[in-house]
Amino acid sequence: MIMNKKSGFSLVEVMIVVAILALLAVIAIPNLRRAKILANESAARSALKTISNSLENYAALNHIYPAATSQLIGADPPYLTKDFFIETYNGYSFTITLTDYTYTITANPINNNTGTLTFTITTGGVLTEI
Question: What would the pLDDT profile of 36-53 be if each residue is shown by its tens digit?
Fold first, then answer.
């Protein structure tokens, strides 16, 4: 006698798998978001230090800070290879105030999903965060 046996998952088994996947998503998504924010903040600090180093190198050779960041990028060889001030970089926007003998650069997060801290670096490479 041949029995006709159907194979597959019951509705209850599928619902249990979906519930487990939903639970894992609820746990993982906030951790992934926080990791992305920390990575953006680290990249902003690093970018500020890079910009500050290029300004300090320029000043060491020219005895004055440049009038504009384009002088850092347009030099041959360039002091700075990326213009951080024309677009956002890893969720942060950068602004700069330059005078002959001082500078202040600020990195602001574009929203709370990209960063939670604002960073400022001033003449001599002094980095602060708010």
Answer: 999 999 999 999 999 999
